[in-house]
Amino acid sequence: MRQYTILLALILLGAFACTKEDDQDCAPAASHALDGEWHLISVTCECPPVLLELEENVWTINVAAGTLEVEDNTTGDLPAVPESGSYSLIVTSDSLFYQLPYGYRYSIEDGDLILDQEPEVDGPLVRLIRP
Question: 38, 69, 84, 103: which could form a disulfide with 128 (CB 3.0–4.6 Å)?
Answer without folding.
Answer: 38
